[in-house]
Amino acid sequence: MSRADTLDGVRSRTIETDRLETHLLESGDPDGGGEPIVFLHGNVSSSRFYEHVLADLSDDHYAVAPDMRGYGDSETKPVDATNGLGDFVRDLEALCEALEVPTPFTLVGWSKGGGVAMRYTIETPTDVDSLVLVNPVSPYGFGGTKDVEGTPCFDDYAGSGGGIGNDAFVSSLAERDRGEGETSARRILRTYYVDPSHTFDDEREESYLTGMLDTATGDENYPGSATESENWPGVAPGDTGVNNALSPKYCQLEAITEIDPAEKPPLLWIRGDSDQIVSNESLFDLGTLGRMGEVPGWPGEDVFPPQPMIDQTRAVFETYADRGGTYEEDVFGNTGHSPHVEMPGDFLERIESVLEE
Fold first, then answer.
1. 171-189 burial string, b = 16+ CB within 10 Å, else e?
2. Is-above-0.90 flag for pTM?
């Protein structure tokens, strides 16, 4: 299986490993001797969000952007949330082995893919030459924590996981709705994936929209299962699905600070200054929505404040540096959740500087 509509210089193919039939986009020559680079997409997206980057990247570098399980044109398989993002890491290991990607390589992860990239680096740091994290999920997961140390609001991590997804949005994905309704994928793309002032090229927007709609929905994929809770808002994480794998109950990535100093790759953190998804007051976090009065029964600032996602990430990365690593924070102005889409020239320049270094 391959796509016939890829940009010039970008190839599409599917690789079968012992774990997954993985569709990927690639560019450059794998035997050309340049630095290999692997791009990991975010939640409700696919490799399509990197296609223009692969097209513009120098042919000296071999670039790979896979669709993770349940996304894009890859095989759909259940996500075991009890191992955090482990399923995605094992899939990536199998793919890199099948492709014989030379190590170490530069690893780029956006949003959820940033969490996968961190987990991969924690487990196999010597495989990673440089780590680039683009608006990554907090090292303490998404939702349900209240301070820079990642302290859970409740013992059962209520307020995070599969139960906090928007049902209307999930339905629009399942129905492959290409309209412009309030909870449609197109509206979410235009309003939250980028700064609302950003305008899309029509062809690119349709490709990104397809990448979002190619998301497997349900209890085993997006958003995942849920369990009842006595704590606000009445739901806690289940044990399957993507949003549960991202819940702080299972997604705990602060161990990145404990990598041996001799093996810590240099870390570049790129983020947009107007990101509404991963921020200290995320509009996808129930703490923020409760404070705004959008979710009834909010127990208040002391019990369930907005998760300080940026502050948590910075604190962990500063510890990473204090313990022998290096990290740089690069903030893109007037940019939302997708710097590689909104500021492609600046993003490519930063990536190429990492590859040259």
1. ebbeeebeeeeeebbbebb
2. yes
